[in-house]
Amino acid sequence: MAELRHSTSSLGTRNSSSPMKREEDSSPLIPDHRPIDDDDDDHDRHASRYRSFFSNLHSHIPDDVRVLLLNNNKKISLCLLFFAVLVSVIFLSSIFSQWNAPYLCKKDGIVLNCPRVKEPPSLWENPYSATTSWKPCAKRRDGISDVPPENGTTGYIFIHAEGGLNQQRIADDVRIVRDIPEWFTDKSELFSSIRRTVKNIPKYAPAQFYIDNVLPRIKEKKIMALKPFVDRLGYDNVPPEINRLRCRVNYHALKFLPEIEQMSDLLASRMRNRTGGTNPYMALHLRFEKGMVGLSFCDFVGTREEKAKMAEYRKKEWPRRFKNGTHLWQLALQKRKEGRCPLEPGEVAVILRAMGYPKETQIYVASGQVYGGQNRMAPLRNMFPNLVTKEELAAKEELDHFRKHVTSLAALDFLVCLKSDVFVMTHGGNFAKLIIGARRYMGHRQKSIKPDKGLMSKSFGDPYMGWANFVEDVVVVHQTRTGLPEETFPNYDLWENPLTPCMCRA
């Protein structure tokens, strides 16, 4: 109370010019609890002196100078306001572009970085945002024809359909002349004469090479054969419309024979209904035939007798590579470290289990005769007993028609793998690349798992790695190896990743 009485008595003796203080003075309900001392009196005297100094200075400034200062202040304020608006627009546009940016994984060295998603991970599907960012755009637009009329053509290219799958597909949107034109009288010359063959075409040649070296020959001779024909045209050194045409032919024009399409639909339907209801299924392309094992020159688990027989087989089939056999052990170790060896069935089983696939998973196996037979397949069958092939899904009579051509059986495997919920490859090759590329072109929703064989070889060879650490490595590494939208890079494979030339932002 003494402090309150002291402050109220002091208020009457002080004359303040501060609006805040005037409000406090006029309100009897707000007492001033701040003690007043000599320092406050000194502060007030100094403040009053400064205010009088600036008021006198302001009165001596000419009016035109004051107007000029006022205008400059307005200009500075407008500049600051414009700068703030510009920064805000840039900031908001960057946020908007990030929200609307397509889902795209980008490479940083050998690491593939993918956008983060809020969706919980799924064993059977890629993130939804990955499927809504891109759409196919290689299909021919209505009313636009790229094929010249018969009488306007420059000439014909005579080719052999190389590879089993290509022999089982027919063209629906590309003009293919199945018979040699009637005006070409010396038909036997086409098969025997070197004069009608363009040879020594370099691998992955640019488009200009064909314009300079092949087109003149076609114009001159009208019909020419190209040898060799596979992988002769590059991917990243040709115009974009050429790569788009490739995708149009591969994904829209070429169709499998109707009987192959129908049988593959039947096999896929049986896979989805093996449990009595609708169930997802996995397709496993197991590359572990004797020829593949021998050609790889990798070392695999086996008895001394098996290894001796494999050495004799390699020496017979590939004598130049085998030489005396002394260098093969070091070569095998190097290839396994680099991830260039086929995965064994047991290794595939461990990887799938580490990814989280349960024992009840329905798996369709696309494979030839597995090297080592049932003993080699035992670890995979023990961990995933619901393992079937087309021979187990279909009756013998249903497949007899397709046994006439081995390529027909391969085509059935191709389509059942293509229609699966999850596709898993165990080694390279055009079969697996074409499936992964087609599944990406269809929308990236379906998972296409490409195991990191190099990393897996290190993990399998580490005797001190526990199961928990192994599972963590497998899950983390393969989060981005499931057929997600991935940017292309120099010397990329168009058939495995058709994103840039053949797909557009959705």
Automatic annotation (TrEMBL):
Its main location: membrane. Residues 7-18 have a biased composition (Low complexity). Pathway: Glycan metabolism. The keyword Membrane applies. GO terms for biological process: fucose metabolic process. InterPro entries: FucosylTrfase_pln, GDP-Fuc_O-FucTrfase, GT106_glycosyltransferase. Keywords: Carbohydrate metabolism, Fucose metabolism, Glycoprotein, Glycosyltransferase, Membrane, Transferase, Transmembrane, Transmembrane helix. Residues 20-36 have a biased composition (Basic and acidic residues). Pfam families: O-FucT. GO terms for cellular component: membrane. Residues 1-42 are annotated as: Disordered. The chain crosses the membrane at residues 76-96. It is found in: Membrane. It is a single-pass membrane protein. GO terms for molecular function: glycosyltransferase activity. Belongs to the glycosyltransferase GT106 family. PANTHER family: O-FUCOSYLTRANSFERASE 2-RELATED, PROTEIN PECTIC ARABINOGALACTAN SYNTHESIS-RELATED. This is O-fucosyltransferase family protein. It comes from Dillenia turbinata. The lineage of its organism: Eukaryota, Viridiplantae, Streptophyta, Embryophyta, Tracheophyta.
